[in-house]
Specification:
This protein has 3 helices and 10 strands; from the N terminus they run H-H-E-E-E-H-E-E-E-E-E-E-E. It is an alpha+beta fold and 156 residues long. The chain has a single domain, classed as Lipocalin (Beta Barrel).
């Protein structure tokens, strides 16, 4: 009976763990990135505030650091016409479809000590990830129609 309980406990731990694909993604995402460009699914001029923080022009050129062993990170706004400084966050990669490689990416702002001051988070799609490039996708509604924001990163 004791061995059966140990076996069941071990089986639960294995089944609840993250998949190999997610673990591999965390290894690739680790490090420093630059958000090189932000594009939209629709043409036109839009006044978009990303992550409830800053405009597209402020985010382009921002630098990001991901530390997957504790799922934390920091991004820095570098445009002098914007509010400069570091912003801290925790992140989670949640697998959706291993065959396509698409994930939900949950990013939650925190303070410097890693504590969330609100329950607000942002669900993004980790649309593409390679050793040198990453793309996030966020779909929102504009005039009751889907509107997609693409955030393109390059690894430093």
């Amino acid at each position: 009976m004791k061995h059966a309980l140990i076996f069941l406990f071990a089986l639960c731990l294995i089944s609840c763990g993250t998949s190999k694909t997610v673990r591999d993604s965390k290894k690739v995402i680790k490090g420093n990135w630059t958000l090189t460009s932000i594009t939209y699914s629709e043409s036109g001029t839009y006044n978009v505030t990303l992550l409830d923080d800053a405009s597209k022009s402020c985010f382009e050129g921002s630098t990001w650091q991901f530390i997957p062993n504790n799922n934390t990170g920091v991004y820095s706004i570098n445009d002098s016409s914007c509010e400069l400084g570091e912003r801290y966050f925790v992140f989670t990669i949640q697998e959706i479809d291993e065959t396509t490689g698409l994930y939900d990416f949950l990013l939650k702002p925190t303070n410097k000590k890693g504590k969330s001051e609100t329950n607000q988070g942002f669900r993004l799609r980790l649309n593409a990830l390679s050793e040198t490039n990453m793309q996030w996708q966020q779909t929102v509604s504009v005039n009751n129609k889907p509107f997609t924001i693409f955030m393109n990163f390059t690894k430093l």
